[in-house]
Design a protein that fits this description.
The chain has four helices and no strands. With 76 residues, the chain is mainly α. The longest helix has 31 residues. The N and C termini lie far apart (75 Å).
Amino acid sequence: MTYHTETLHPSLSHRFGEVASGLWRGYWQRRSQRATIALLHSLQDNVLHDIGLDRSEIESVVRTRSSGRLQRFEDV
């Protein structure tokens, strides 16, 4: 039985390409997060309240993409 060494051991250039691709995606993800955080911080408090977000939650919501977070309700 013969094995192709290419299928068993990916080439070094292929591994380098995967690492570089992951770093590039990470770079753009961090830039996107920073831009989103800056945009949300530029909004007024009443606008943030309208979209259901408190100023103190901005970074954690953006970085964790927490869609299932607990909603904060004000006592009436």
